[in-house]
C-alpha cells in the first residue's frame, strides 16, 4: 500500500464507468484506486503525491474502470448543506448570499421541515420575515422549493463541490438576481 499523505480535507470525486457521479473519497483513497488500476484519473488537482515507488498528480476526479451497480436512491436527505446546494447558496428572497435556513411557512405555525417548505435565506431576510409567511409580507420566492433530483445529489448533499467537478455534476449557475 503506498504511503500517500495528501493535504488535509481534500477530496476526490469518484465517477462510475458511465461518468455518473458516485461519491467523494479522500485523495489518498482515490490515488489507491488509480494505482491499483480500479480507476483512471480524469482531472488532476493541485500537486503531486509521492509513494516509495510512484508519484502521481493529486487526483481531483477519477472514473472507475468497471461499472458498479448502485441502488437508486430516490430520497435526498434534508441536510443543511443539501438545502444550500439546492438553492445555490443564495437567499430565496433577495438572492444575496445565504447563511441561514428559513421555513417558508413558519414552524411556529405548523410549517413542516420538508424540502417543499425550506429555503436558504440571508440572515437579514430571515430575521425580517420572523413568524410571517412570504405572502403576508408581500414577498415572492425566487422558485418554488422542491426535493432535488439527479445523481449529483449523492455528492452535493454531503459537502461543497470542488469547482473542478462542475463538468461532471451538471451544476447550474445560480441565476442573476
Ligand atoms: Zn435575503
TrEMBL record:
The alphabetized UniProt keywords are: Endonuclease, Hydrolase, Nuclease
Q: What is this protein called?
A: HNH endonuclease
The Swiss-Prot or TrEMBL record annotates one GO molecular function as:
endonuclease activity
| Pfam families referenced in this protein's UniProt entry, alphabetically | HNH_5 (PF14279)
Q: Where is the HNH nuclease domain?
A: 78-127
